[in-house]
Queue: 3 jobs
Job 1
Amino acid sequence: MNLEIIYCHVLSAFPSDANLSKIAVVLIGVVVGFLSGLLGKDGSAISTPALQIFAGLPPFVALASPLPATLPTAISASVAYSKEKLINKRVVFFSVLFGTPSTIIVFLLSH
């Protein structure tokens, strides 16, 4: 997915006079990116509420904003851990066994 499209999609959630909110989104992204790299933790737990509180984004947009970065990060981490043989296959097996059906069931129940 093109980053310009993502950026435009996120910014389209703002009212046209919300330049301060656009600056807040960029600052939140910089701070969360720095903290994520420094601490080695996904920034979604920080960015989602920060986007709602400080940038005034609707909850759905704030929740979805970090998702485009999550997939490539997870794939690259999986490749790195796999090369070092650090993946616990038993944990992966049970996560897929129970996590996938649970996700599908909750999705169906929520509609």
Note: The first helix runs from residue 3 to 11.
Job 2
Amino acid sequence: MTERAWQDLIVGDRMAVDQEFAQQVTDSQFSRQEWGLIMTAVEFTIRTETEMDDEQADEVVARANELCKVHDALKSELKASITVESGAF
């Protein structure tokens, strides 16, 4: 799948969610701008069976970024927050 096709899927899904929840957004305590921030927040947790030190966790995060390309698909001003929970299983 090309990078553009992947981005188009995200945009299409976001538009569908926006339409599906338009009334709830209007009725909520948040402004549309605040909902925009909420809807663009991206956070990942990587859980590993093995206990890791900070250096190893950084390597896992770097590898995960290479594999999923989430940061490439985000607007330049947005960044995904990634945390690692080692020894999680």
Note: The chain has a mean pLDDT of 78.
Job 3
Amino acid sequence: MIHPTQIGPANAAFAPSAAEIEWSRRIIAAHAAAAAAGKGVVLVDGKLIESLHVENARRLLGLAEGIEQIASVDTPRARGLSDRRQRRPLRGRRACLGTQCRA
């Protein structure tokens, strides 16, 4: 379980880096060009790239896009604030904090 205030920091910590995103885009494009030429594999920076690497790259880009989409929503949870801070006090009931109570 994760507390709503931890979503933003967790996404920031586990989001793919800019270098990983760029690498994923490069291998997807290179593999697509190779597939169009009738090849199943391609070399990118001396590394052999095949369909399993492209699948991982697509997954990584999907993860990055999902995190970016969540981060772009302006909600208390996206900002790392608890919903409790946004709620109005209960009306018609006593609210007690420790030994201090108010009507």
Note: The first strand starts at residue 42 and ends at 44.
